[in-house]
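(Structure overview)
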Amino acid sequence: MFDPEIAAAYSARGTVSPETFARVMDDYRTRSERAVRDLPGARGVAYDEHSDEVLDVWGIADAPRPVFLVIHGGYWRSLSRLDTAFMARTLADHGIATVAVDYGLAPATSLPEMVRQVRAAVAWVHRDGPAHGLDRNRIVVCGSSAGAHLAATTMIGGWQADLGLPDRAVHAGLLISGLYDLRPLIHAEANEWLFLTEQSAADLSPALAPLPDDPAPAVIAMAEHEADGFRRQSRDFHRHWARGSAGPLLTVPGRNHFDVFVDLADRDTELSSAVHRLFALTAPTHTPK
């Protein structure tokens, strides 16, 4: 049974008009197509031997480039990597490659399988990324909404060794408008396609996982105009992660749950500045002789 109060708190669509939602969804695809036009890269690269999922690599060059691995939102049931490359040209101008990841969507794909897939995408960057001009030692993971949840599952511990990865498989994270404790969704509309139980919701919640021994730096961000549940969870997860790794909680003024993500297409926004600060933290240090 849905709880009307919980359902309202986790209704991102309820915070914008249908016209605004449609406009932003169109903006994702239009801006992404424009950003990657004539940009060096590789489309539709298979990254996971256990599924048909693919990723795109944009902004590559002769020398290995730091990696912005970006995971789309869509409440785990819509959108794709093709809607999630609008930042690629701006980042390429700063010497950063963009890896936009597809994953299976609900209800055909279970949430545990989505988590497995995005972790496999991180493993692909470590294993095959250097052959595509990627620096596997400088990976910043990013996601918006459902993508922020999936990105956070690559930052917690307990899965890396099975894929032959170091404990800190990603080196920093930008998590935008995400959900990190999935238990409330049992009582919201999203459970019509996620099929969560109390146990599975807890198991899939980054906020309930133990902090890694050496948590990667993270920026937790949200829009000014978020539904209450998203706003609350951003604050709670920031407090949780900050116990092991200091980083800011950003509230982007004038933005809603959907259009805040597009700020990454503009080099002069607060979110873009946060990306560059995170990459600066991943830069190798040299001790003077």
User: Anything to note?
Assistant: The mean pLDDT is 96. The longest strand covers residues 134-144. The chain has one domain: 4-282.
